[in-house]
Each structure stands twice: as C-alpha cells, then as structure tokens.
C-alpha cells in the first residue's frame, strides 16, 4: 500500500471504520490558524490530532547526550533534504549525521504506544519529509499542506473560532523547531557545546558552501534545507514572507506559554517510557 495516497485517506476518513490521528508538522502554524486547525481536522473525520513538539523534546534529550560524548562534528538529521544531499553529494559527512529519530518518527513511536488502534497520518510541509515518512513503519499515511488545503476546500471546512485543542503531547519551547537554529536553541546545550561551536544554517546553498569549506571550530551543525527552515518548505503557502511566517511561529510559542494545559495533555517524559529514539535511522 502506498502511504502517500490521498483518495484512500479520504475514503477511509469518511467511512468511520478506521480511526485516524493527524500529526501536524511544527511549521503548520505558519499555514493554518490554531486552534481552528484542530476543529477543521476533526470536521474532516480525524479522531485525534497532535503536533510534533513532544517528539522534538524527546530527541533533543538524545542530541544532548550524544553531543556531550562526541569529539567529531555532529550534523543534525531531522531534515531529510539535508540527509539526502549529504548522502548523494557529500558522502564523507554521512557518518557525521546523528543517528537519532526526527520529531515525526519520534512522535509516531509515541502515538503508536498511546493510540495503538489508530492510523497515523503525518501532514508534511515538503516532499522530503514525505519520503522519510514513507520509509517509516511508524507512519501509516502522509499528505502535505497543499493536499490538506484541498480537502478543506472540497468539504467546505472553513476556519472557525473555537476552543478545541490538540488531544495530547503539548510541549511549548520546541515550537520553534521549524525555524532556522530551532533544534540547537532548544536542546539545552549550554555546558555541552560552546555557543561559538554551534552553527545554524538554513538554505541548501549556504549549507553546501559550508560543507565545501568547513570551519574546524564547529562541533554541531544545525542545518535545514529550506530558506528560513521548514516554514519555507515547498508545500507551504507563498502568500506570506519568511519573516511573517517566523513571526507566526514565535507568536504561537508565546501564546502556548500562557495556555493552561491539563496534565494528561502534556508531553511528559514518563509518557515516552520504554521507547528508544536512537539507533538505526531511515536513511541507513
Ligand atoms: S527544511 Fe525544508 S526540506 Fe527540510 S524538512 Fe523542513 S520543509 Fe522539508
């Protein structure tokens, strides 16, 4: 079965025989309003909806641990565009890619544990992420932002003022993950890697420029393929500038800090107990 199969998802969403859980990429907020997006997903037939911030928090812990014990250059691996560029054009750096799950795979593992009967649908900003999700046993289906907009239009599901929240796994500070340098800023690396040893780069041209002529001082390369980070992904809307989208992510972060989230909806470490987030990755 092909995972990237919109008609199939559409049919099953309407059938009500299968329960679906939507996992939206963290850049969603630059595209759709929150919490209206949750209402709209549920109108389409999704039983549950969550974002990837808790998965990001859990993999940050792994980055922290691995960076602490590493002597060589470590390259972040949540962006499959970067992973594939390194694999194809810079194979000598392939070993430097960190073998830790991306937030989507980590969240897939967490959702499998808590919702074993649900089909997990990842909603992606780009085709690279779709390829990654298609290679993961923890994701059942994947669609992108454009396809989601198409579904909203087809079923006339408009934004609405509402109080419907994500069902589970809230974490506030990792909401900046889709921005350039978001991983490095949220992985609590103080005392692990010096600030001047961390380099955040967005945009593949700049990344390649660095890899062609690396600075030996850099110990951690926090890189994203698209200009601006995931808010610049190929299936994101071009109506807003990168700066406007960035502001929406930061506004969402500030808003989330004031949200009163009940304990059972929070992304608490104990909820990921028993799950392994490091080891062989989809690109190995
Ligand atoms: S930076 Fe771009 S290519 Fe990489 S995961 Fe984000 S949207 Fe996809």
Your description of this structure?
- The chain has 284 residues and is an alpha/beta fold.
- It has one domain.
- Helix content is 37%, strand content 11%.
- The protein contains ten helices and seven strands.
- A four-stranded parallel β-sheet has the order 2-1-4-5, sandwiched between helices. It has a three-stranded parallel β-sheet with strand order 3-7-6.
- Strand 1 (20-24), helix 2 (36-44) and strand 2 form a beta-alpha-beta unit.
- Helix 3 (53-68) packs across helix 5 (103-114).
- The two termini are 22 Å apart.
- The mean pLDDT is 94.
- Iron/sulfur cluster (SF4) binds at residues 79, 81, 125-126, 128-129, 224-226, 229-230, 233.
The portion of residues forming beta strands comes to: 5-15%
Structural class: alpha/beta
Count the E strands: 7
**Helix share bin:** 25-40%
What is bound: which ligands?
iron/sulfur cluster
Largest sheet: 4 strands, parallel
What is the radius of gyration computed over CA atoms, rounded to a whole number of angstroms? Answer: 18 Å
Average pLDDT works out at 94
Question: Strands across the major sheet, in which order?
Answer: 2-1-4-5
**Which runs of at least 5 residues are low in confidence (pLDDT < 50)?**
none
Question: What is the total number of structural domains?
Answer: 1
Number of helices: 10
What is the CA-CA span between the terminal residues? 22 Å
- Shape call: globular
């Amino acid at each position: 079965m092909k995972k990237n199969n919109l008609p199939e998802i559409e049919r099953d969403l309407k059938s009500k025989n299968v329960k679906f859980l939507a996992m939206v990429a963290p850049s969603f907020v630059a595209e759709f309003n929150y919490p209206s997006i949750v209402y709209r997903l549920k109108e389409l037939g999704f039983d549950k909806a969550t974002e990837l911030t808790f998965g990001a928090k859990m993999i940050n812990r792994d980055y922290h641990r691995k960076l602490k014990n590493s002597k060589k250059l470590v390259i972040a691996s949540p962006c499959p565009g970067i992973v594939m560029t390194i694999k194809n054009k810079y194979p000598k750096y392939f070993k430097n890619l960190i073998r830790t799950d991306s937030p989507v795979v980590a969240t897939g593992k967490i959702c499998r544990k808590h919702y074993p009967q649900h089909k997990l649908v990842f909603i992606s900003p780009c085709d690279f992420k779709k390829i990654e999700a298609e290679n993961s046993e923890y994701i059942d289906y994947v669609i992108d932002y454009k396809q989601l907009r198409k579904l909203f239009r087809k079923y006339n599901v408009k934004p609405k003022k509402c109080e419907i929240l994500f069902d589970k796994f809230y974490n506030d500070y990792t909401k900046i993950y889709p921005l350039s340098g978001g991983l490095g800023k949220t992985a609590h690396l103080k005392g692990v890697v010096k600030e001047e040893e961390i380099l955040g780069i967005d945009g593949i041209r700049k990344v390649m420029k660095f890899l062609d002529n690396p600075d030996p001082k850099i110990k951690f390369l926090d890189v994203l393929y698209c200009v601006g980070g995931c808010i610049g992904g190929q299936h994101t809307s071009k109506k807003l500038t990168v700066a406007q989208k960035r502001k929406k992510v930061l506004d969402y972060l500030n808003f989330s800090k004031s949200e009163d989230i009940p304990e059972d909806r929070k992304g608490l470490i104990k909820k990921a107990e028993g799950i392994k987030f490091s080891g062989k990755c989809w690109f190995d």
